[in-house]
Amino acid sequence: MRPVFADTLLLAAPVPAPAAAPGTAENFLNRADRLLGKGPLALFDGDDKKLKAEGTAAGNSIRLEREAAERAGRPILYCSPKPRAELGGREFLSALRHIPLAERQRLTLRAAMLQVLQRKYPCRKQVNPHQQE
User: Fold this and answer.
1) Cα–Cα distance measured from residue 113 to residue 121, given in angstroms and rounded to the nearest whole number
2) Is the C-alpha dihedral spanning 33, 35, 37, 40 positive or negative?
3) pTM for this entry
4) Cα–Cα distance between 116 and 111 in angstroms, integer?
């Protein structure tokens, strides 16, 4: 029989909030915020390189999809004035924070990044000159 004191300690222990699912925008943001809190020491955290690699992979995937759509004559998903969209790390994290929590929890990092790029570089609706307004 366990002592009652031990049961009381177990019940009084704080229950951590469930972590965001790996691969989600929320998980990425949580990990980035944790690293930002470490300041310069973040460079020595193994997650630093992992986060950079995940962000780069998502960005490259979106860029390659855009380039393929351009070559095929399909509509592109965002309209950067330069061939390579510019999106700084802190700018991206700030934009992620503007996505509602519930949405960040279900969006993949790639989908969230695409949403950020679409907000930063919206495509103007092209009018067909042969259509009458």
Assistant:
1) 12
2) negative
3) 0.75
4) 9
- Other Cβ atoms less than 10 A from the Cβ of 38: the count is 13
- What the block records as the tokens of 82 is 């330069």
The per-residue pLDDT for range 31-79, each reduced to its tens digit, is: 999 988 888 887 878 888 999 999 999 999 999 999 999 999 999 989 9
The DSSP annotation for the chain comes to ---HHHHHHHHHSPPPPPPPPTTBHHHHHHHHHHHHHHGGGGGGSHHHHHHHHHHHHHHHHHHHHHHHHHHHTPPPS---SSSS----HHHHHHHHHTS-HHHHHHSBHHHHHHHHHHHHSPPPPPPPTTS--
